[in-house]
Amino acid sequence: MNTNRQSGRGNTGNTNRGRRSRTQGRDRGTQSRPRMRREEPMWTPRTRLGGMVKEKKITTPHDLMEFDAPIKEVEIVDTLFPDLREEIIDVGRVQRVTDSGRRMRFRVVAAVGNGNGYIGVGEAKGKDAGSTIRSAIKKAKLNIKEINRGCGSWECGCKEPHTVPFRVKGKCGSVEVTLFPAPKGAGLVSGEIAKKILSLAGISDIWVHTEGHTRTSINSAHALLNALVNTRYMKVKNE
After folding, report:
1. What does the alpha-carbon distance between residue 141 and residue 73 come to, in Å, rounded to a whole number?
2. Residues facing 165 on adjacent strands
3. How far is it, in rounded angstroms, from Cα 205 to Cα 211?
4. What is the 3-state secondary structure (H, E, C) of the chain?
5. What is the pLDDT of residues 222-239, one digit of tens each?
6. By CB neighbour count within 10 A (0-12 exposed, 13-18 middle, 19+ buried), where does 225 fall?
7. Tell me, what's the pLDDT at 156?
8. What pLDDT score was predicted for residue 38?
9. Nearest-CA neighbor of 225 among 140, 106, 137, 124?
């Protein structure tokens, strides 16, 4: 009887030692593994415009828009617009009929803006939702535009850039958009797609009238962008 008790005690002692050694090994393993930090790759410009931005010959977004060259590198926008915001306008699925059957793909419309007179819209299609969203945001950055803001409402007259300076129209496909300047406090009187784009552009008060097949999110977004870009075709006095 005594031998059985002693053997049982010995077994429990061995198990406790094994547990302690395992926990100690885990603690040592976690302590000896430092976290690796990913280093961002250095940007090597491939265009003349990118080289001028990296050499700090172009330091403001306005100078970038005045330069007569298209934006071909996303790093240009990331450098000059550090406070750029992103918004997903619409995510849908499209089908393509082939000999092997139907293929499903994603269609994403995205918009970017800094809330201070700069806005861009892009669209992309792809097999995966994540990569398609990133591609749409990239195209929106490359398509960023500058717009003019002001106080074109005769009811307000505050001379602050909270709305469009005058009535302006834009069109894309069958969708036609008309923007009316609104007084301060009116808000964004428009649909959901227009609200997202106008807030990214830095407009807080406006009346929007749309005509055509407005359910097509791509045409609605590009028509609104066209109307905002048309504000630059007329000079406005800065008092």
Report:
1. 9
2. none
3. 20
4. CHHHHHHHHHHHHHHHHHHHHHHHHHHHHHHCCCCCCCCCCCCCCCCHHHHHHHCCCCCCHHHHHHCCCCCCCHHHHHHHCCCCEEEEEEEEEEEEEECCEEEEEEEEEEEEECCCCEEEEEEEEECCHHHHHHHHHHHHHHCCEECCCECCCCCCCCCCCCECCCCEEEEECCEEEEEEECCCCCCEECCHHHHHHHHHHCCCCEEEEEECCCCCHHHHHHHHHHHHHHHHHCCCCCC
5. 999 999 999 988 665 555
6. buried
7. 85
8. 54
9. 140
- pLDDT tens across 39-79, in order? 557 889 899 999 999 999 999 999 999 998 899 999 999 99
Encoded tokens for 169: 């129209």
User: What is the rounded distance in angstroms from the CA atom of residue 225 to the CA atom of residue 58?
Assistant: 25
The percent of residues above 70 in pLDDT, for the chain, comes to 81
Average pLDDT over residues 87-114: 88
What domains does the chain contain, in order, with CATH numbers?
48-146 (3.30.160.20), 168-233 (3.30.230.10)
- Tokens 């000999």 — which residue? 99
Q: What is the pLDDT of residues 162-207, one digit of tens each?
A: 999 999 999 999 999 999 999 999 999 999 999 999 999 999 999 9
Q: pTM of the prediction?
A: 0.77
For 190-194, the CB contacts below 8 A with 24+ separation are 191/220, 193/89, 193/90, 193/217, 193/220, 193/221, 193/224, 194/220, 194/224
Strand partners, 85: 113
CB-CB neighbours of 33 under 10 Å: 8
